[in-house]
Amino acid sequence: MSEINRAAVAHLARLAHIEMTAEELDKMAGELDVIVDSIKSVQEVARPEVPATSHPIPLTNVFREDVVGETLSQELALANAPDAADGRFKVPAILDEE
Amino acid sequence: MSELITHSAAKLAELLAASEVSSTEVTQAHLDRIAAVDGDVNAFLHVNTDEALAVAADVDKARAAGEELHALAGVPIAIKDLIVTVGQPTTAGSKMLEGWMSPYDATVIKKIRAARMPMLGKTNLDEFAMGSSTEHSAFGPTRNPWDLERIPGGSGGGSAAAVSAFEAPLALGTDTGGSIRQPAAVTGSVGVKPTYGGVSRYGAIAMASSLDQIGPVTRTVLDAALLHEVIGGHDPADSTSLTDPVGALVEAARSGDVRGMRIGVIKELQGEGYSAGVQARFDEALELLRGAGADVVEVSCPNFKYALGAYYLVMPSEASSNLAKYDGVRYGHRVLPEDGSLTIERVMGATRAAGFGDEVKRRIILGTYALSAGYYDAYYGSAQKVRTLVQRDFAAAFETADVLISPTAPTTAFKLGEKLDDPMAMYLNDVATIPANLAGVPGISVPGGLADGLPVGIQFLAPAREDARLYRAGAGLENLLEATWGGPLLAQAPALGGVK
Questions:
Q1: Does this entry carry the keyword Ligase (chain A) (predicted)?
Q2: What's the CATH superfamily of B3-258+444-498?
């Protein structure tokens, strides 16, 4: 058994900004427990001397000339916004009332 | 049913070049087919009738005027709805993006437009490409044209079903852990995951950026090569794009010569877990290749047994980060919580609760877990080390073999709903396709025949940047098998909607 219980999932859901009902938390905890149990075998072979690979094909960073190019117009960028005002994205209060 | 829809893209290109048919006729024939059968198949989320016919008419006019055209000009194509398109909605199969209109085209779409290929529409997928059955689409499952009670694979079940139901001669897919190859396998079509970086990912909605790759879904190996040459090549807009030339893929597909080719059978990707029918077709394929002069050898990739675990750590980790942008602020769904204070945090929480389906939530939470303090080294760190080991296995195998071979998927298409409540069983569908994504190497799935009346796929894998080998081996096997079947496998597909 892994450490994934309902409280752990509730914490992760808060970190991921996904509201979950008590029922969802229970179901997710059960499912993740099974999944984590089956995938943690990776630890068996992850010996210290094995280097990590983050990217399949080694590449070095690429730079481009700093020239002015085309970007999205403000109008296009805002076209899909759920709410906008004065050429900006509009959101509810950023901070809690406290 | 018009005979036009049964032709390969290569054949259509020939007929168009000789002005024996018009693009308008070809495009209309496919739109008619979509209208006739897609109520049953549900391969399309959006049908792009007006624009497709306008592009077709334009190509016809240009051809009549003697303009020089791309070889595939006028040949229609379907696009997986994970790839952004101006003028057509892009949903990624999610409620989160329902109604969203991309303000820009993906690089591959710009290339399709430049080649003047009419886009028939956008195809269904598991939400944000997360799944192996297309059942996780927020807009209903796609059905397998071979048996409408069965899944068409996933995540790109829509593209594979569209091609195998003759609704489109060509389609684009994306492959993060097998989402092009596994659907191709279970629908009797051809699917290619190019070398990582070989095709620009710019405008492919990201799931796991170090694994995602766009590629062709077609009915023949040659058609896949033709489409691969259209979409491949360097793109400055994708920082992981390779600068290498695309390579002579069409030439390799036209050759299909496997004499002297060293084909490595991956010991770990057969046997237990693979159904008897799949194993039988696989063994037959090996026998045919041997008979044609290929040098079939066995190779061992002992770390592949850890690949699935590594994948289900790396992929959700990257996905949880990539999907953080769906916050209800700049685009997509916004849901206001019904109770309590209306802060941006609560809006995000409610938006993501309502906008994402179960599988997406599962992977975001799993990724958040794998990346969280205290677990990072044990999970994400270990998975990255397994990636190194999988790459070493490939490198060793490619010392004794030019290409590797395995079944594409462990079973044929299963029934709708059969694995929906068992995430681990669903994940196991990708056991043979995942190693290629972890290592960035290219892979192809070609039809290998039927088991209990359902298609089986055979997979070839090649070293990075050696995609041409896939086309030579794939076409070789295709030729050998079609000689035994007396024609393409899809000619045996059952009629749909009483049309055929």
A1: yes
A2: Amidase signature (AS) domain (3.90.1300.10)
CA B206 to chain centre: 14
CB < 8 Å from A in window 172-201 of B: 195-197
Strand partners, B173: B215
Query: Which residues in B381-453 belong to E strands, given as ranges?
Result: 403-407, 443-451
Q: Flag whether residue A25 sits within 8 Å of chain B, measured between CB atoms.
A: no
- The string of pLDDT tens digits covering residues B341-354 is 788 899 999 999 99
Domain parsing of chain A, residue ranges: 6-45
Residue of A nearest to B315 (CA): A54
**What are B446's strand-pairing partners?**
B458
Dmax over Cα atoms in chain B, in whole Å?
Answer: 73
Q: DSSP H helical segments within chain A, as ranges?
A: 6-15, 22-39, 42-45, 74-78
Q: How far is CA B325 from each of CA A83, B321, B331, B365, B393, rounded to the nearest angstrom?
A: 16, 8, 9, 15, 36
* Domain residue limits, chain B: 3-258+444-498
User: A29: distance to nearest CA of chain B, Å?
Assistant: 10
Here the ipTM equals 0.94
d(C-alpha B184, C-alpha B182), whole Å: 5
Could you give the CA distance from residue A89 to residue B334 in angstroms, rounded to a whole number?
Answer: 12
Measure CB to CB from residue A53 to each of B313, B344, B387 and give the nearest one: B387
| Fold (topology level) of A6-45 | Histone, subunit A (1.10.20)
HEC letters along B17-65: HCCCCCHHHHHHHHHHHHHHHHHHHCCEEEECHHHHHHHHHHHHHHHHC
- Check CB contact under 8 Å for B329 and A91: yes
Q: Strands, DSSP E only, in B139-241?
A: 170-174, 190-193, 214-218
pTM of the model: 0.97
The 10s digit of each residue's pLDDT in B278-294 is 999 999 999 999 999 99
